[in-house]
Specification:
single chain; about 300 residues; mainly alpha; Seminal Fluid Protein  PDC-109 (Domain B); Lysozyme; Endochitinase, domain 2; 3 domains; 10 helices; 3 strands; globular; disordered N terminus; CBM_sf_5/12; carbohydrate binding; chitinase activity; Glyco_hydro_19
Amino acid sequence: MRRVTSLFLALCTAIGLAVLLPAASAGAAPACLTAWNSGQVYTGGMTASYNGRNWYAKWWTQNERPGSSDVWRDEGACGTGGGGEQPQPGDFVVTEAQFNQMFPNRNPFYTYAGLVTAAKKFPAFANTGSDTLKKQEAAAFLANVSHETAGLYYIVEQNTANYPHYCDANQPYGCPAGQAAYYGRGPIQLSWNFNYKAAGDALGIDLLNNPWRVEREPDVAMMTGLWYWNTQNGPGTMTAHNAMVNGAGFGQTIWAINGALECNGGNPAQVQSRVTKYQQFTQILGVPAGSNLSC
């Protein structure tokens, strides 16, 4: 329909006819189009919805995600009439207003829509047990990522001198993106080639060859953070998700993320920073912080 309309307008312009188009209804967002599919090839003129917005392909695409490339033109926000990528009210235990309250100075890269989209990849996250437990886990994750990124401000690791250190060349797949390509990115600062490989394999995204997607696509960034939270023990004895849903407490989430350096007196100031943020976030969500807060 878009092509027919465009040709009609061009013809009318060529012969000097004025064309009056109906005005859009004030305040009403158009329905979301069919959701973008990473497995589909889009050619010029095709459309899709993604993260609550409609997009128009200007030319042939090669799996570029809408919003990450000039291939796509942003057609504006859309409503709930289709396009399964749009987060809906009630999808997540933290509202957008609460998210904004938690991160008043966050980098615009970190979006609520990105968080909600990422959470759908891990249906047990903040969706296990009682409403209180769900909110406690959400607060625990967001408190830890707040600590890691200075309030969701930093997207990439700031100490560039560390960048070349995150390539384990002994891995059979090596470091195809380059020696210095696997620095910390995203809400839990994913680093090392083997972590990019594991996260990408789990998410169905080639992060080993294209680790830059973590710093360019908000939902991919959040997915890597939730991948670690839900599947990796780190230096701890359990995942951060299991720590919260099984009653081990917030302190065990610190172990899973950076316990080798911070826990058992390693850096009590850093531990307290995480605990304080968790207490603030549980207060915003209206739930108790629970026990076993420190490590």
